[in-house]
Amino acid sequence: MAKTSNVYKDKKTGAWYFVANLGKDIYGKRVQKFRRGFKTKGAAKQAYLVFMQAYQTKDEEKKQKIHQKYDCFEIFFEEIFLPWYETQVKISTFTSLSFNLRKQLTYFHGRKLSELSALDIHAFQQYMLKTKTQRGKPASISYVNRLTTGLSSIFERAIVYELMTENWVRKVGKMRETQKQKIEFWTMDEYRQFEARLPFSTHTEMLQKTGFRLLFMTGLRIGEMLALNWEQIDFEEQMMTIEKTLYYRSKTDNQLLSPQTAASRRRIGVDGKTLQMLLEWREKQGTIGEMAYVCQIDGSFMCDSLWRDWLKCLALKANVQPIKLHSLRHSHASMLISIGESPLVIQKRLGHHDIKMTLGTYGHLYPDASQKLTEKLSLLEI
């Protein structure tokens, strides 16, 4: 077949036809339209030009309607951004962030993406600082910055769809945190007082005491502890392998997920007393039935919020200042610092992907590091 641009001649019939290439569909398959039966090449070419002009006009009108629809902030957020974002991150991350964004970004409802400006982002940040949280306290700068980061992701996606030309969040930036957020933790004496008041006889009591000691003495995240199975504990080598985390929605809706970073997959040492407590709990657990996971009492996974409630209640009974469940992880890091462990050792044990994260979180707990260095330098015979 002879070819002139998008016009072809059919050798069998002698007639001319054109092929219009219209791009690709949502599955990546090429879209083409054929028109046949033209007596001359010129007629086929003219018909092709008329077809393409009509198609482009219609396509432009369709794009305009779509643009007008999704230029609305809340429609773009719900119908375009969230379905895409869900495919990009762990389900736990998606659930947490989408909840907060849905709740707080109502500030932008009714607004057009194409009409937003840097001043709108600044106004949003100031508005959020005056907004009280569920606890009745003003939102923290770190919380506002997390929302701002989420908003930046939304704008980046809008740029991909040509709904925005500028990510105004990048222009404005995050808010500066003038004061480092205080890390709460228990000292070793406070934990000893807490543990000494915990009973260790019933199934629930033994699980509570074992679980809280495990969190304090290893620095595990609560999801990592709830996903820990007995096979991951090497009692002879006194080692523990961390390779999963539990995402829990309900007793029948939960998943074991891989960690977000390779550093979270780790093998750590466990002290003898904690291992002994684990052995005693495993024996007690066995009287109920054979269970694969450490934190099971009826064969099903446990909710992390239950452990939060337990910790608060038992801390008050032990006359110890209650802390957040995640603060047991901070307590472990604080304990390691107090016995002289280096930030690199702490980073690997906690499963941080970057030493900057470790230093950024716990660096202030090394207040006498400069003084100790000065003393060491003074002893050098130089």
Structure overview:
The chain has 382 residues and is an alpha+beta fold. It is built from 15 helices and nine strands. It has helices at residues 41-70, 73-86, 91-104, 118-129, 141-160, 168-172, 188-196, 203-218, 222-226, 272-286, 304-317, 327-338, 343-350, 355-362, 369-379; strands at residues 3-4, 7-9, 16-24, 30-38, 233-234, 239-242, 245-250, 253-257, 266-269. A four-stranded antiparallel sheet has the order 1-2-3-4, covered by helices on one side. A three-stranded antiparallel sheet has the order 5-6-9, with no helix packed on it. Strands 7-8 form a two-stranded antiparallel sheet. A hairpin with a 4-residue loop joins strand 5 (233-234) and strand 6 (239-242). Helix 4 packs antiparallel against helix 5 (141-160), helix 8 (203-218) packs antiparallel against helix 10 (272-286) and helix 8 crosses helix 12 (327-338). The mean pLDDT is 87.
